[in-house]
Amino acid sequence: MCTVLLRLDPAADWPLLLAAVRDEVADRPWEPPGEYWPQEAPGLVGGRDLLAGGTWLAVRRGGPHGGGGAASSGAGSSGAGSSGAGPDGGMSGGVVSGGIVSGGVMSGGAMSGGAMFDGVAPAGARPAGGSGPGVAAVLNGSFMNRLDRSAPGSAPSSSRPSRGRLPLRALTSGVPDAGRLREYEVVHLLVADADGARLVSWDGQEVTDTAIPPGDHIVTNEGLDVADDPLVPHFAPLLAGAGIPGGTRLSPDGPSGTDLPGPTTDWWGDWTHLLRGDGLAEDDPRALLVRHELPDGRVFGSVSATLLALGREPGRVRMDFTGTPSNPEWKQVEV
User: What is the pLDDT of residues 156-186, one digit of tens each?
Assistant: First the structure.
């Protein structure tokens, strides 16, 4: 299970707030967020999976040297953007987002408004990036739908490209079209910026592209606000109750990046408490932070967490990261 808690408010000082937990086999090697792809994806910041070289979550600061030129989230569009050659990366674990939660949890899987398409973007669909700050993230999708039933943490299949390339591609050359997405293992790809968010999903049978409306959202490996996932109804009211990070300091006219004042716990407030998992046991079906022993003796669990605030102007980004979410030591990331 990987999870993203997302708040979209285009009228707010900071239109996008995101809290993400990455779950993976504990011994799969990775590096904390940095700029690891200067040629393929210049200006993008993300953690790097050392097994396949890609990322589970990439951030664009925006501007001429901040990964600009990618398409915008196209939250108002209904189709995937044009495909393009992208960096080869690696997926290990993932990240998500979901349907609207404020006012109650949705009762279905994917939100209404999702479009199914046949390898071409519908007329009028916008590409998936822009010159301002943006984020793209992947999570694995339901294990029950996977085309390859290998154990979690297995080496990447030689017959399918790594899903870790998708966040980098989405923020540089656009979201792959449905035909290309079908080349991957099942996956959810979240692309978001100040103008909105979209969730592009490949479940092994069909590809859907869903515009995510303003509000609070939760995505798990099962998809967009799937109320049958016990985590969603438990954490939806907790997310709704989370306050505005940074208080009045959270202004797009103020400092950006690492100049934003305050240590993580002070600046983010309720959001750091949210990522502590509400005291649930790691084997609780509702748990945000998990730990399970696999049949081969390895441990699968929550290996990192990210907090992200995006503004509209280039450089209006705050990113905080911990590699020990169960006992967090937060560090602000230079973006």
Answer: 555 789 999 999 999 999 999 999 999 999 9
Q: How many Cα atoms are found within 13 Å in the side-chain-facing hemisphere of 113? A: 15
Strands laid side by side in the 196-202 sheet: 30-34, 44-49, 57-60, 134-139, 187-193, 196-202, 207-212, 115-116
Q: Are 198 and 6 in contact (CB under 8 A)?
A: no
Enter the tokens of residue 249. 């300091």
- Domain total in the chain: 1
Residue 197 and residue 93: Cα distance in Å, rounded?
Answer: 20
Reading the block at residue 128, the tokens are 């998936």
Number of H-type helices and E-type strands within the chain: 5, 16
**CB contact set of 22 (below 8 Å; sequence gap of 6+):** 2, 47, 56, 57, 92, 93, 94, 95, 302, 303, 304, 305, 306
Domain that holds residue 284: 3-333
- Identify whether the C-beta of residue 132 lies closer than 8 Å to the C-beta of residue 194: yes
Between strands 16-25 and 3-8, the pairing is antiparallel
Sequence-distant (6+) residues with CB within 8 A of 178 are 80, 117, 118, 119, 120, 202, 207
Q: Give the span between the Cα atoms of 290 and 285, in whole angstroms.
A: 9
Query: Mind giving me the DSSP string for 90-101?
Result: ---S-----SB-
Whether pTM exceeds 0.85: no
Whole-angstrom CA distances from 173 to 69, 74, 310 are 8, 14, 20
